[in-house]
Amino acid sequence: MHKLGLKLWSTNIGSYYDEATRLYQDHLFYYIELYIIPGSLDTLDKWARLKNVHGIPFIIHCPHSAHGFNLADKQKLSSNYNIYTQVKTFADTLKSPYIIFHGGMDGSIEETAKQLASFQEPRALLENKPQIPLPSPLNFRQCRGASISEITYVQHVTQCGFCLDFCHAACAANSTHQDIYTYMQALLQFNPQMFHLADKDDLLSPFDSHLHLGTGMFNLTKIKAMLPTDALVTLETEKCSKNNINDFIEDIKCMKT
After folding, report:
1. Long-range pairs for 219-224 at CB < 8 Å and ≥24 separation?
2. Which has the least CB within 10 A, 14, 104, 114, 118?
């Protein structure tokens, strides 16, 4: 049976924190994937309580470019390392088996591989990306780690693992005029240690989306058939309420039916 994960941010220590405790006790998910906001080490004790008292497993996600972490930018070498040390503290304390990294924006894939290798992080997983980011005032032009060749290069240099994001794969396929399900299948060659899944609003769009499962256009039967029986699958669906995560419960039901 698939091991389903709940995606939260390290700053979610209010209602989502309490809800996560309740839903885990109801056996509705297997682990929390915690995205680390830089400067939030003061929340670590609360997350450690979920680990130590309630036994909730954790997987850690390093920040991405929206929070100032960009492995592809050599000008950010020092700040990237400072952020990574915070992420490592979370991963060590919460005993995470993996740390998920994005390849960065613009810059070069060579810089991405060089910086990731410098961390000497044996838990590192590279997550595949869309080729182009969502439109934003940051004016980024290209994501690193969208193509098979770039993922291959980073794995060759760093010996890192891989996290397959199905929505990102569809976006990258659309940018290069490939069939989205064929491209997802091609990414399985990297033997993913885990997966990210949400639904997608437009199967022809190069832009990412995080719809609830069953509310978009994905053929979820095809996608679920690609998952190993015991796959770690983080549901990266949007949260429609600031007070509860009941919509996550519906996503869980969709995965199980």
Report:
1. 219/181, 220/254, 222/181, 223/166, 223/181, 223/184, 223/197, 224/2, 224/255
2. 14
